[in-house]
């Protein structure tokens, strides 16, 4: 089971290191393919006054320190095409944010690196249309078809994080997990799916109480992995605190997900007519 977890944004090396240390039991689980996650820049904050992070150069330096100290694989976000090569020197997975999932130049720039490409489905996207996003990356890497097998071979993943439902709310259509898994390995983003965009007058809110319910539902459908941001003290987090899982609560959830997966007869993608 793929698991991507860590704080939403880099706040300090102390915060990164403490979180990385706390996640060690999960990272060392032989049934988990673990990636430590943190963003060096949150370029799509609602307000200009919101904390964005230390930036590309300092952020990658801190992530490289985590990689060296703990031996973790790293995932982080990209926002502009020119950042791809610098990020690829540190990260094992380069993540394209949901709002940028249609940006051809960005997708191609990331696909030209040797790293896994994880594209988050936009909150505004029909899941079936993500096939075209996948095909951009696959063709850049020499493939010719958006299928689960080719995407896995060429290192292209998709992440579900909910769809806009009116203003300030997201819902998860669990059918999208099945639809997208026809043409790529699928990760379920359990924490951003409970986000309430713009819900706190200039910043996004959320309700972390629903994270385990949605995650367990996704596990029962059959996905390749999970994205779950975590913080030692979410109430003091500088970004997305309302939907991040307290680190001490993540362990039980991960065990639940592993148990559910063990009951599934197969994880083969479903062919839809």
TrEMBL record:
Q: Which InterPro entries match?
A: Aldolase_TIM, DAHP1/KDSA, KDO8P_synthase
Q: What catalytic reaction does the record list?
A: D-arabinose 5-phosphate + phosphoenolpyruvate + H2O = 3-deoxy-alpha-D-manno-2-octulosonate-8-phosphate + phosphate
Superkingdom classification of source: Bacteria
Key word Transferase present: yes
Q: Which Pfam families match?
A: DAHP_synth_1 (PF00793)
> Which GO biological process entries does UniProt record here?
keto-3-deoxy-D-manno-octulosonic acid biosynthetic process
Q: Supply the alphabetized keyword list.
A: Cytoplasm, Lipopolysaccharide biosynthesis, Transferase
Molecular function terms, GO-annotated: 3-deoxy-8-phosphooctulonate synthase activity
Its GO CC terms are: cytoplasm
Question: Where does the DAHP synthetase I/KDSA domain start and stop, copy by copy?
Answer: 1-247
Subcellular location(s) per record: Cytoplasm
Give the EC number(s) listed in the UniProt record: 2.5.1.55
The enzyme's main class, written as a single word, is transferase
UniProt pathway annotation: Bacterial outer membrane biogenesis; lipopolysaccharide biosynthesis; Carbohydrate biosynthesis; 3-deoxy-D-manno-octulosonate biosynthesis; 3-deoxy-D-manno-octulosonate from D-ribulose 5-phosphate: step 2/3
Q: Which family does it belong to?
A: Belongs to the KdsA family.
Q: What is this protein called?
A: 2-dehydro-3-deoxyphosphooctonate aldolase
What is the organism field in this record?
A: Helicobacter equorum
């Amino acid at each position: 089971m793929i698991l991507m977890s860590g704080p939403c944004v880099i706040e300090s090396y102390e915060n990164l290191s403490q979180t990385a240390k706390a996640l060690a039991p999960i990272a060392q689980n032989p049934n988990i393919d673990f990636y430590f996650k943190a963003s060096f820049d949150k370029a799509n904050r609602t307000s200009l006054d919101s904390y964005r992070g230390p930036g590309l150069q300092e952020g990658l330096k801190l992530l490289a320190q985590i990689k060296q100290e703990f031996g973790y694989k790293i995932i982080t976000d990209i926002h502009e095409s020119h950042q791809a090569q610098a990020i690829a020197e540190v990260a094992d997975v380069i993540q394209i944010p949901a709002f940028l999932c249609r940006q051809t130049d960005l997708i191609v720039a990331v696909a030209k690196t040797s790293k896994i490409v994880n594209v988050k489905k936009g909150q505004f996207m029909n899941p079936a249309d993500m096939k075209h996003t996948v095909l951009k990356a696959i063709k850049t890497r020499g493939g010719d078809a958006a299928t689960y097998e080719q995407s896995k071979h060429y290192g292209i993943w998709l992440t579900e994080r909910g769809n806009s439902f009116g203003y300030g709310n997201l819902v998860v259509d669990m059918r999208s997990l099945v639809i997208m898994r026809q043409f790529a390995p699928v990760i379920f983003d359990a924490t951003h799916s409970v986000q309430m965009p713009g819900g706190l007058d200039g910043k996004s809110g959320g309700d972390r109480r629903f994270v385990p319910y949605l995650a367990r539902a996704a596990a029962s459908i059959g996905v390749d992995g999970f994205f779950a941001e975590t913080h030692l003290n979410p109430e003091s987090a500088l970004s997305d605190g309302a939907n991040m899982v307290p680190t001490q609560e993540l362990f039980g959830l991960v065990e639940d997900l592993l148990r559910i997966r063990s009951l599934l007869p197969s994880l083969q993608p479903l062919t839809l007519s």
